[in-house]
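The following record pairs a protein chain with its ligand, S-adenosylmethionine.
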Amino acid sequence: MVYEVSHDDAFRWLNAQPENSFHACLTDPPYGINEFTPKEIEKLRKGSGGVWRLPPAIGGNKRAPLPRFTVLSDEQRNHVREFFREFGRALYPTLVPGGHAFVAGTPMLQYLVQDGMASAGFEVRGAIIRAYRGFRGGDRPKLAEKEFADVCVTPRGCYEPWMIFRRPISEKTVAANLRRWGAGGLRRISESQPFFDLIESARTPKEEKRIADHPTLKPQKLLRALAFALLPTGEGNVVEPFAGSGSTLAACEAIGVNSSGVELDQENYSRIAQNVEALSQLYPAWTDELLGNQAAFRDLFDGTGG
Ligand SMILES: C[S@@+](CC[C@H](N)C(=O)[O-])C[C@H]1O[C@@H](n2cnc3c(N)ncnc32)[C@H](O)[C@@H]1O
């Protein structure tokens, strides 16, 4: 399969793409706030503070840092909404009518992303819930943990939403749109089962993290299943404007789908080719099952993780 990757700004790059270039978008964006600005990335790489939560080493294993979103001001929240309005506007014309976008998010910011994308013209079509247990922390009232020993400030996060958007179809029916554009629906698990909006997904396996050093690396099995679902006829190409380590491009490569990616950070960009090569070669048997619409999908939906 073919993938291409550009070292560029996603907005500039999308605005330069011809209309109707892609059948789908599978993306894990930054939150338009500041977690991927050079200043914050420098703090992350140094391991000192900033918007990144840097948990202490536990049992000798350093945990992966995560951005904290509870510290956002009103202005930053508006910035998220605007960021996704701009993103939606740039993406919209590049997708064929009926093309879907799956956008990774976080529960607390989901409404802002949906609002921004909707104002750019996308239909909001719910979310796929990736059920997994990320990092737990900060759930007790600060400096009053003993006084309010029975209180948690937020529930323990057990899911990550992948919001579903669709560029409206241009034809009268989904069937006509599928015929014309190869888009408008999602791929079924099997003839008798549609795609589900709940996926059990373990944390990104260590083996994948050893290959691709990125703070928000997503697991291959999840990305492959999502990329597979995004192309209803099994044909077309996928865009990931915030490529990071290249994991989405690797997932597309593994399932035989053409893809295009963009990454702004030079260090991440320079590692993408080697990451795609190594990540795409993992789990060949599982991937064969996925492409055969059978057991691999059941793994993801029956709680055994992926
Ligand atoms: C959440 S990460 C994606 C991680 C990816 N899913 C993975 O598994 O490796 C978002 C990425 O977008 C990049 N980025 C941020 N702003 C960008 C922009 N304007 N254009 C292109 N890439 C950008 C960041 O450098 C970061 O690597």
